[in-house]
Design goal:
The protein has about 350 residues and is an alpha/beta fold. It has 2 domains: about 170 residues, Rossmann fold (3-Layer(aba) Sandwich); about 130 residues, Response regulator (Rossmann fold, 3-Layer(aba) Sandwich), CATH 3.40.50.2300. Helix content is about 45%, strand content about 15%. It is built from 11 helices and 12 strands. The strands form 2 sheets. The protein has a 6-stranded parallel beta sheet, sandwiched between helices. Helix 8 links the parallel strand 8 and strand 9.
């Protein structure tokens, strides 16, 4: 099933928001709950378990179906939920109106907490504020860092995407990049725009950067779009993708186009780690998605059980860091568990 079909499945799933039925990032699996019976998608055994009353939490994301990055998020969330005696549901939609419906459904269910990503503040701010006004604590993660605290979130966990982009751009400049192609797989999401814009700023006068939008729901469309651009402009010496699956598509594009361009990316998954080990992808900007998912859940438990907040009213940055040939061996053992 290509990503376009899975996207249609995700939208159908989002329409069933009143029941908090959810699609996983790898297909149309039902939402999983984590409680005394153990953690779905848990990465490893949890040392202890809280004796506090069971809480219910809804985790809602803008995950693109098929993007395995979100499976890592869920492993972190599941580990925290198991430790904290939390039952949580997971739902996702890459379409902001449907994500808003999922948040509203969680409000209607009167859950004890909501962990949510915000890729589109104009579309999601009203319903996030509605949750806060209803007395439901909201943690935010992965997207929406600039707006999280003003929306009333108890904390934000992720990276500043503009800062991450600048770091990527500076590294590209240091490596001698002259013509960078930045590949945006989901048009209109602010955090992705920040990655490309930050890269351009970091690159500075050392080189130029062009951004293209591709259909991230379809592997073949991503590959053909990048390949066509490489054929059109042989001077492109780096392809920068904004997610691990698209980096693997870019590797195919470079080969098909007989291009000499190097591939680098944001974010990782197990397959991407293998591509770095083999040299097909030079490096990845890592925001530690396992940590994001873990903190998004754990922060709600801390707040509900002890009134604690993390970060002193400021976003908690989980990245950026770089994964490359110098540290890939250390990362690989965790990637094999699905946690990096």
């Amino acid at each position: 099933m290509n990503r376009k079909n899975r996207t249609m499945m995700a939208v159908v799933c989002a329409a069933a928001a009143v029941s908090l039925a959810a699609c996983s990032s790898t297909g149309g699996k039902n939402a999983t709950s984590t409680g005394s019976s153990g953690a779905a998608n848990s990465a490893a055994a949890v040392a202890g378990k809280a004796s506090t009353p069971t809480m219910t939490v809804a985790m809602i994301t803008h995950a693109q179906p098929g993007d395995t990055f979100w499976d890592i998020i869920r492993k972190g969330a599941s580990a925290a939920a198991q430790k904290d005696n939390i039952n949580y549901t997971y739902s996702n939609s890459a379409q902001a109106p449907q994500e808003a419906q999922l948040i509203q459904a969680a409000i209607d269910k009167k859950v004890d907490g909501i962990a949510v990503t915000d890729p589109n503040t104009p579309a999601l701010s009203a319903v996030i504020k509605k949750a806060v006004a209803a007395g439901i604590p909201v943690s935010m993660f992965n997207a929406g860092e600039k707006d999280a605290m003003s929306l009333g979130a108890i904390g934000y966990f992720g990276q500043d995407e503009l800062v991450a982009g600048k770091a990527a751009g500076k590294r590209l400049a240091a490596e001698g990049a002259k013509n960078v192609l930045c590949v945006d797989q989901t048009a209109g999401q602010q955090q992705l725009l920040d990655r490309c814009n930050g890269t351009k700023q970091g690159l500075g006068s050392e080189g130029k950067m062009e951004q293209i939008n591709v259909d991230g729901t379809d592997d073949s469309a991503v590959t053909s779009s990048i390949q066509a651009k490489l054929a059109q402009d042989p001077s492109i010496d780096y392809v920068l993708t904004l997610g691990a699956p698209y980096a693997l598509d870019a590797v195919k594009s470079v080969s098909n186009a007989n291009s000499k361009a190097k591939v680098v990316t944001f974010d990782t998954n197990q397959q991407l780690v293998g591509a770095i080990k083999s040299g097909k992808v030079l490096w990845a900007v890592d925001q530690q998605p396992y940590l994001e998912g873990y903190l998004a859940i754990d922060s709600l438990w801390l707040y509900k059980t002890n009134g604690d907040t993390i970060g002193g009213g400021q976003p908690v940055l989980t990245g950026p860091s770089f994964i490359d040939s110098s540290n890939i061996a250390a990362v690989a053992k965790y990637a094999a568990k699905g946690t990096r």
